[in-house]
């Protein structure tokens, strides 16, 4: 059968998402109230599930005749700008539609990669760029509609791809839908975290390098900050690349890079976090360690970066994820997926496996940085290190199974105690919907 690719809209028609009346649906959503067993964490107010339009993306037919239909996956990150009203917020995609080679037979029905380790990009010529969505709640809070779509661009205004970088510390082979190996792309970003400044510019955390990316309000990359030493490997990127981040974070485990960013209320500092422990000295440490590195960086002096240790919970404490007793989660399954800052400066961290999501208030004000001589061995020896103090303020385990979506990756504060939670549906590869929840911390 001749392979075909069908696009429901192209990159040059992003504006049609905003204009389409089909994306503005009001009065269609329902409310989900939290169950009464919430008292052992905090009394939550009403939990709202606003209706989100079905953002169709495109379909692909693979060489075995299997057709997959995709929807936009906009929940890899979330952000809210100081001064905006409580109904306006931003979310972001990750690097686009991709299927891990090891999952290809299960999802597509054939081993497209012929046993190789890598990732399949079904839309390599379309190059869907990592994209920021500006969203707004309807007046009744029961629906969400798209206000603007901001694809990321290089310094010349060309759309950024999500294809893998040519990095020595990241040997992920990119393939197209027919199993042909693609070229690496120095401009590519695997975006996973989002924060917005008062001037409308964005700070993005990404996984490839890993890196921090400063982006103008129209989506053009201003600069990309990478671990010291990696800037030479991305010298061909069509934007500014600076090697200023701690070199040790280049040891991030594949696809476990920078997963959360947040800006202090005075905009003097940027907080950011890795998703998991590092491969330091190797992947065995990543699998067993409970210590994730978090950072506080001055936005006026990138060399002023303080490192902190965050201690993950043990996997047995994630109740919903432990219901499958034949395959219980392991320590490496526990991860950080987001962080945000409240108006009073409190930092909230999202810790999860798949079904269970926990929110912790983390105390950076009284935190003790990791001593320089201890940083090199944090994953294997935390002797003499004081981890960040954390207080549980919310867990989805206090609700019935199914009341919250799996794989919640986006979180931001709307102000006045309200938080947005949104899941990453992986562009609907397995048929998952994008779900938004609004919880009230008061």
Defining traits:
3 helices; Methylamine Dehydrogenase, Chain H; Esterase-like activity of phytase; single chain; mainly beta; 28 strands; signal; disordered N terminus; 4-stranded antiparallel β-sheet; 442 residues
Span between N and C termini? 58 Å
Put simply, the count of helices is 3
Shape, per Cα inertia axes: globular
Report the β-strand fraction as a percent range: 25-35%
Total of domains: 1
Which bin fits the share of residues in helices?
under 10%
Return the CATH class. Answer: Mainly Beta
CATH architecture heading: 7 Propeller
As a whole number of angstroms, the C-alpha radius of gyration is: 21 Å
Strand order of the largest sheet: 13-14-15-16-17
pLDDT < 50 runs, ≥5 residues: 1-40
> Structural class of the helix and strand makeup?
mainly beta
What's the count of strands? Answer: 28
Main pleated sheet: 5 strands, mixed
What's the CATH topology label?
Methylamine Dehydrogenase, Chain H
**Rounded average pLDDT:** 90
Organism: Venenivibrio stagnispumantis
InterPro entries: Phytase-like_dom
Keywords: Signal
Protein name: Esterase-like activity of phytase
SSE inventory with pairings:
Elements: E1 5-7, H1 15-19, E2 30-32, E3 47-49, E4 56-61, E5 67-71, E6 77-79, E7 88-92, E8 99-100, H2 104-107, E9 118-120, E10 131-137, E11 144-151, E12 173-175, E13 191-196, E14 202-206, E15 211-215, E16 221-227, E17 241-245, E18 258-263, E19 269-274, H3 283-288, E20 291-298, E21 305-311, E22 335-341, E23 347-352, E24 357-363, E25 389-395, E26 408-415, E27 418-423, E28 436-440
Parallel strand pairs: 9-12, 16-17
Antiparallel strand pairs: 1-4, 2-3, 4-5, 6-7, 7-10, 8-9, 10-11, 13-14, 14-15, 15-16, 18-19, 19-20, 20-21, 22-23, 23-24, 24-25, 26-27, 27-28
Protein name: Esterase-like activity of phytase
Domain Phytase-like: 85-427
Keywords: Signal
